[in-house]
Amino acid sequence: MSMYGRDPWGGPLEIHATDSATDDERSRNLQELDRGALDETQQSWLLGAGEQKKNKKTYVDLGCIIVSRKLFIWTLGTLAVFAFLSAFITLIVKTVPRHHHKPPPPDNYTIALHKALLFFNAQKSGKLPRHNNVSWRGNSCLHDGKDDGVPPVIKDLVGGYYDAGDAIKFNFPMSFSLTMLSWSVIEYSGKYQAAGELGHVKDIIKWGTDYLLKNFNSTADTITQLGMQVGSGDTSQGSATPNDHYCWMRPEDIDYDRPTQTCTTCSDLAAEMAAALAAASIVFKDNRAYSQKLVHGATTLFKFSRDQRGRYSPNGKEASVFYNSTSYWDEFVWGGAWMYFATGNSSYLKLATTPRLAKHAGAFWGGPDYGVLSWDNKLTGAQTGIVMCSYLPMFTSFNRTRGGLIQLNHGRPQPLQYVVNAAFLAALYSDYLDAADTPGWYCGPNFFSTDVLRDFAKTQIDYILGKNPRKMSYVVGFGNHYPKHVHHRGASIPKNKVKYNCKGGWKWRDSSKPNPHTIVGAMVAGPDKHDHFHDVRTNYNYTEPTLAGNAGLVAALVALSGDKTTGIDKNTLFSAVPPMFPTPPPPPAPWKP
């Protein structure tokens, strides 16, 4: 007999009566099966590997875990292969040549900038710093300011800079040079930093401002006397008195008297010295104590310039022969502007923008030197935008040589010192317009883009660096073809442990051999109006460098150097100027219920 039921998975479910058993029998059978399974499980868990005779797998005991030997060996092999591949890849990366994108080489303006700054190291007077980087220079003129007749407040005039190829220290052009250098740092500190020269140029400025502070009682609020010159160059009437022009000696060997000259009515000199200290105070604004010292000295000097009127170089004074000042009104405008930027005092701005002052300075009547920035004429620096049109070749304010050099001094000798100043102003004004998102400016009805100004600056500096009919660089040490007979005492006399006296050095002055020392970075006076140049040591109109000329060169070079997108510093010039609008009040406190 059989019974049929439904298999839930499909098909019949058949149960035979003959195979059936009682419930007790089925229960006993299940218990026996459970005990057998349990005994086998216990053996697999509790017995050691050697005792598991029926289990063919082997295991590795890692202390905290037991894993299959096969799995353990596979894991170790994988790690070994991975380590080998990693080491192999690292070896390949280290040995295969890398193709890094090197930074572009410095442009010619940056290269020339490095050299032009070294000229100031070569011109230092006094006890030189350890790392002056001009091997043929040493300590010199360590008794300056100690001659008879020097005011008691001027006790020490050691330091400063020699003006040119001689050893005279003229405060008038020296101050202008420092103002130009400071102006360039204020506007282009980022470019100086990129060139690695920011610290260097600041050291150059401080060497000069430290010296200017010695020329008057810089701690006083009011002064009556001012140092203006150390050394003498008077060779009139066949004088054979040893001095800085009659003698040809290394500064380190000078043993003749170096008189100190002072002035009591010298508005132009005092105002220019004030401008130099005021501009430098902005450069050193992060050195609060020194910056305030410069501002105080500048304030004292500018007050002196306004209180005791007069030119520092009237007829009969030696200064009128070498650095004659035509008036002091332009220094009032120039100095007043820098005093405003250094102090934020609006009274200086009011003075600098007074129409009567501008009229006296020649702002409205023009003249042959209108638009020519120089150590004598500062008006152009204070009214930059007005003169830009005169630099463009389509206008006839100034002639040009056949080689393209603008004749700002109308064909007179030593043209380059004026050209570099114009190049700086043009590049700077172009950057001013770019900073204001202004694409250009108008000259009458004609519109010119900012690129026109920058191109003018580049063509003039390129001429100086060698793109001229003679293919000569007028910056010593730049390029392969540059003047070798520079009119410079220190560079033309060998440093051979021989002291050549006043006349003993004449043989080196008159020698046709190249200078034994290269005065790197010196910009010589330049070619004549026909692009001709004579590399002759005795002709200073061609081969003598000056502080003022090199200061303008440095300013123009840094303005043109590097990436044009760097632009100018929009804020530093106005760091001491109060905001045009009052500071808005703070927001109200959060509302609380």
Automatic annotation (TrEMBL):
Its EC number is 3.2.1.4. It comes from the Eukaryota. The chain crosses the membrane at residues 71-93. The active site is at H487, D535, E544. It catalyses: Endohydrolysis of (1->4)-beta-D-glucosidic linkages in cellulose, lichenin and cereal beta-D-glucans. Keywords: Carbohydrate metabolism, Cellulose degradation, Glycosidase, Hydrolase, Membrane, Polysaccharide degradation, Transmembrane, Transmembrane helix. PROSITE patterns: GH9_2, GH9_3. Residues 1-26 are annotated as: Disordered. Residues 109-557 form the Glycoside hydrolase family domain. InterPro entries: 6-hairpin_glycosidase_sf, 6hp_glycosidase-like_sf, Glyco_hydro_9, Glyco_hydro_9_Asp/Glu_AS, Glyco_hydro_9_His_AS. Pfam families: Glyco_hydro_9. GO terms for molecular function: cellulase activity. One of its GO terms (biological process) is cellulose catabolic process. Belongs to the glycosyl hydrolase 9 (cellulase E) family. This is Endoglucanase. It comes from Glycine soja (Wild soybean). The lineage of its organism: Eukaryota, Viridiplantae, Streptophyta, Embryophyta, Tracheophyta.
